[in-house]
Write a structure and sequence with these properties.
By secondary structure, the chain is mostly beta strands. The chain has one domain: Sandwich (Jelly Rolls), CATH 2.60.120. The chain is built from no helices and twelve strands. Strands 1-9-6-11-4 form a five-stranded antiparallel sheet, with no helix packed on it. A hairpin with a 6-residue loop joins strand 2 and strand 3. The protein is globular, with a radius of gyration of 15 Å.
Length: 142
Amino acid sequence: MIDGVKITPLKRIFNEKGDIFHALKGSEESFSSFGEAYFSSVNKGDIKGWKKHSVMVLNLIVPVGQIRFVIYDERQGSATFGEFFDIVIGPENYSRLTVPSGLWMSFQGVGGNQNLLLNIASIEHDPTEATNRNLAEINFDW
């Protein structure tokens, strides 16, 4: 596990007419603040990233499909400097992945045709607070 990253198992309430998927409560320890919530989709086999936020804290939930998240710690002085963390999240492993600022993240669609994530971000989108890299710039074996 990368220092500062949290995995929170979430409640899924099964219902014959359609399930309820919990996401985030303001009373939870991993909640920092609310800026915006948005959905992002990724096609099966496609990879998005690498991206590093300087301020935003991500709270990532996958209610549809399966998404593989890879986090890389390049923070000088971190206890997990140089390490990777790799996890697949979806309805079968229904959890919230909380990623603090300062970490590189990339993700890949590994489920069926539709893979959908919800990010409950700590701040509103600000293109000046994030840095992008090409996939080849961080050596990870996808």
